[in-house]
């Protein structure tokens, strides 16, 4: 049920229709099967917002406006969007998003508590050739081992991210990698999480320029990188 409040005052009122579109799209969230799918969905929305921002100040203003719009919408999807922002969103918006979500009483799915609650596991380095860069496979799980998944990040020259993918079927991914290794198409080896964590956090730091294909997974990739040692 919606308990929509009056339209909020915005820092960037010209984008009101954009924020309203996000609030309407949030109606998809409660119907998703779990936290991983929700985080992937949320990351894609946040990636679009970041890619469209002309500068860091504009991005921060847009995030604040989005929180205000979602709070005013008052729907279960809007509250879930805010919970997702509090879990995997940019650091500067997490606290205010959490507070806004706590002010709402819209129902949440049973998996909402899993948002952002991941533990890092094994990390693998896949090298396919000197010109292909490094592919890092970082495994994660939700509480009680639920929804094991991996972040697959390909880093090119200067550790520029050229591909970010969230993989749900980790055994199939690693099986394919080992088959490629047996065919001498690549090298697969364990990687120290204490080494890959700082490397990924630097590669994904806000303020850098990213390829368009990377933006949809940036938010969830940054969250997972922060979960590494």
Written description of the protein model:
This protein is of the alpha+beta class and 229 residues long. It folds into 2 domains: 13-114, no CATH class; 119-227. 46% of the residues lie in helices and 15% in strands. The chain contains 8 helices and 5 strands, in the order H-H-H-H-H-E-E-E-E-H-E-H-H. It has helices at 16-25, 35-52, 56-73, 76-88, 91-102, 170-182, 193-203, 218-227, and strands spanning 119-127, 134-141, 149-155, 161-167, 187-190. The protein has a 5-stranded antiparallel sheet, with helices on both faces. A hairpin with a 7-residue loop joins strand 2 (134-141) and strand 3. Helix 3 (56-73) runs antiparallel to helix 4 (76-88), helix 3 packs parallel to helix 5 (91-102) and helix 7 (193-203) packs antiparallel against helix 8 (218-227). The protein starts with 15 loop residues before the first helix and ends with a helix. The model has no long low-confidence stretch (mean pLDDT 93). This is PucR family transcriptional regulator. It comes from Actinomadura parmotrematis.
In brief, what are we looking at here?
By secondary structure, this protein is an alpha+beta fold.
What is the secondary structure topology, with strand pairs?
Blueprint: H1 16-25, H2 35-52, H3 56-73, H4 76-88, H5 91-102, E1 119-127, E2 134-141, E3 149-155, E4 161-167, H6 170-182, E5 187-190, H7 193-203, H8 218-227
Antiparallel strand pairs: 1-2, 1-5, 2-3, 3-4
């Amino acid at each position: 049920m919606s308990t929509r409040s009056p339209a909020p005052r915005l820092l960037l009122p010209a984008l009101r229709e954009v924020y309203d579109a996000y609030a309407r799209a949030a109606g998809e969230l409660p119907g998703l099967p779990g936290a991983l799918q929700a985080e992937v969905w949320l990351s894609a929305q946040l990636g679009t917002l970041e890619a469209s921002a002309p500068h860091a100040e504009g991005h921060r203003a847009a995030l604040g406006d989005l929180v205000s719009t979602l709070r005013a919408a008052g729907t279960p999807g809007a509250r879930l969007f805010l919970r997702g922002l509090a879990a995997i969103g940019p650091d500067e918006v997490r606290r205010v998003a959490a507070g806004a979500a706590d002010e709402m009483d819209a129902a949440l799915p049973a998996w909402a508590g899993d948002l952002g609650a991941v533990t890092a596991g094994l990390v693998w380095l896949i090298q396919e050739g000197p010109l292909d860069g490094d592919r890092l496979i970082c495994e994660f799980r939700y509480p009680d081992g639920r929804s094991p998944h991996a972040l697959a990040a390909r880093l090119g020259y200067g550790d520029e991210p050229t591909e970010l993918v969230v993989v749900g079927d980790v055994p199939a991914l690693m099986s394919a990698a080992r088959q490629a290794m047996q065919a001498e198409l690549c090298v697969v080896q364990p990687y120290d999480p204490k080494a890959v964590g700082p490397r990924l956090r630097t590669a994904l730091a806000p303020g850098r320029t990213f390829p368009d294909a990377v933006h949809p997974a940036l938010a969830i990739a940054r969250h997972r990188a922060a979960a590494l040692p």
